[in-house]
Amino acid sequence: MSTISDSQDKTTVATGDIYALARHYRFQWEDAQQCYVLLFPEGMIKLNGGAGEVIKRVDGQRTVGEIVSDTQQAFPDVADLESDIIAMLDLAIEKAWLEKRN
Amino acid sequence: MSAQVQNNGVAASKTNTQPLWLLAEVTYRCPLHCAFCYNPTDYDKHTKNELSTEQWIQALRDARKLGALQLGISGGEPLLRDDIEEIVAEAGRLGYYTNLITSGVGLTEKRISAFKEGGLDHIQLSMHDITEEINNFITNTRTFELKKKVAAMIKDHGYPMVLNVVIHRYNIKHIKEILEMAEALGADFVELANTQYYGWSLVNRSQLMPTKEQIDEAEAVTNEFRKKVGNKMKIYFVVPDYFSERPKKCMNGWGEVFMIVTANGDVLPCHSARVLPDMTFPNVKANGLKWVWEESPAFNKYRGDDWMKEPCRSCDEKEKDLGGCRCQAFLLSGDAEAADPVCTKSPHRHLIDEAIANAQKPHLQAQPIFFRNDKNSRKLIEGENRELVEEFHALP
């Protein structure tokens, strides 16, 4: 019944940054959709395979650098993974899905 | 690699729909009497045949199997039922992201603790104004102080605080003060929902509608405020469609992502679908939700765009809004398959312009508000006050 508009600010990640899911956000695997989802008040985001793999590793412990190397190890055949991961994290921060922890 | 960003989760095609959002309108009973309520004006018919706790639990289980994720527990005032704790706990076990949508009346320390234990994710509290006078006037109740207490309680229990403020002529000049109040209360999300005209708000349209200038000003104030608070408080501004040139993509498309189970078990693709003519809506007492979603004639009636007529059918923007809102088309034009009259390509756009003009006429503005209450609902059901509803095609 509604049209929704909102706005965000730009940011970018550094290798040593540590992030966690923002307060009140929930990340879970959905069988019915066969993908990970992010749930929050008034919204949900379906994350495609790659995006889900990145957000899964954002746990408030690992640095961005560790998330990159961990994902690269899990998907050794994918080229240019690092820039994709950084872009994904930038997007997630811009959307305020993630909070900085250090 | 990119996130498939789907604010509200728009499904890709007709064959790929899922009821990601489930709204449980568990009761139409309500201690408030808001002039802008979107509930059906004949809601009094549905207050004595509510679903049982077991029937709600079954509906939650069935919808979850279909992929439902976001659950809103709404009404009326859901807290008038004493089994919300059980419903919340089941929703928690099933993995829903659960939202209690409440006026705050009936929320106690004991209940809010039980909800937390059951896994309730957030509480959306309705607020009306910064002034006690307007809060009490528009809701026709004395609830101003209570709402502030409830807001503090929500915060104390660690819930995200989501404030919903329906915007109309009486509070639109106070947007800045309302946002300041929200910030002071520690709100995480604020939804400024401009009144849309369905149900009771349609009856009271001339009394509630602000001017275009007021809305533009309100949006500018909101944007200013967003810059100041940043991501600390997320502010949604729900655009009022009467002042747009194109209609909203209502419910993100009929039977695309939303499913509503009403107090008596009727299953609807949108809040006000029961106003539409020649429709039989399924009911959870008789129909499984899988059949309802996938097979029922009601849910398939306006899926996709096969049903469209001109000017929608050949319109190059039809995918953007899917012809707008079926209920609004019917309520205003008498034709459920017409283009939403909000669209400037619609032959019925003059109805919207007239409504906007009428809302500036002092004698129409000054009509008494017809408040949402059981007595007024019964009057409309019994055919009294015809003058209030005659121009709208579906009100009883």
What's the arrangement of secondary structure elements?
The complex is a heterodimer of chains A (102) and B (396).
Chain A: E1 4-5, E2 19-21, E3 26-30, E4 35-40, E5 43-47, H1 49-56, H2 64-74, H3 81-94, E6 98-100
Antiparallel strand pairs in A: 2-6, 3-4, 4-5
Helix pairs in contact in A: 2-3
Chain B: E1 21-25, H1 53-65, E2 70-74, H2 84-94, E3 97-102, H3 109-118, E4 122-127, H4 132-139, H5 144-156, E5 161-167, H6 175-185, E6 189-194, H7 199-203, H8 205-208, H9 212-229, E7 234-238, E8 258-261, E9 267-268, H10 289-294, H11 297-300, H12 318-321, H13 326-333, H14 349-358, H15 362-365, H16 374-381, H17 386-389
Parallel strand pairs in B: 1-2, 1-8, 2-3, 3-4, 4-5, 5-6, 6-7
Antiparallel strand pairs in B: 8-9
Helix pairs in contact in B: 1-2, 2-3, 6-9
Structural description of this entry:
The complex is a heterodimer of chains A (about 100) and B (about 400). Chain A has helices spanning about 50-55, 65-75, 80-95; strands at about 5, 20, 25-30, 35-40, 45, 100. Chain A has about 100 residues and is an alpha+beta fold. Chain A has a single domain (about 15-95), classed as Coenzyme PQQ synthesis protein D (PqqD) (Arc Repressor Mutant, subunit A), CATH 1.10.10. In chain A, a hairpin with a 2-residue loop joins strand 4 (about 35-40) and strand 5. In chain A, helix 2 (about 65-75) crosses helix 3 (about 80-95). Chain A is globular and about 30 Å long. Chain A starts with a strand and ends with a strand. By secondary structure, chain B is an alpha/beta fold. Classes of the chains: A alpha+beta (about 100), B alpha/beta (about 400).
In short:
With 102 residues, chain A is of the alpha+beta class.
Reported by name, the CATH topology of chain A is Arc Repressor Mutant, subunit A
Helix content of chain B: 25-40%
> What is the CA–CA distance across the termini of chain A?
40 Å
Mean pLDDT of chain B: 93
Quaternary class: heterodimer
The 3D shape of chain B can be described as globular
Radius of gyration of chain B: 20 Å
Please identify the structural class of chain B as seen in this structure: alpha/beta
Going by CATH, the homologous superfamily of chain A would be Coenzyme PQQ synthesis protein D (PqqD)
**How much of the sequence of chain B is in beta strands?**
5-15%
Runs of chain B with pLDDT <50, length 5+? 1-14
The biggest beta sheet of chain A is recorded as: 3 strands, antiparallel
CA-based gyration radius of chain A: 14 Å
Look at the structure and give the CATH class of chain A. Mainly Alpha
Q: How many individual domains of chain A?
A: 1
Helix/strand order of chain A, N-terminal first: EEEEEHHHE
Mean pLDDT of chain A: 86
Q: What share of the residues of chain A lie within helices?
A: 25-40%
Strand line-up in the sheet with most strands of chain B: 7-6-5-4-3-2-1-8-9
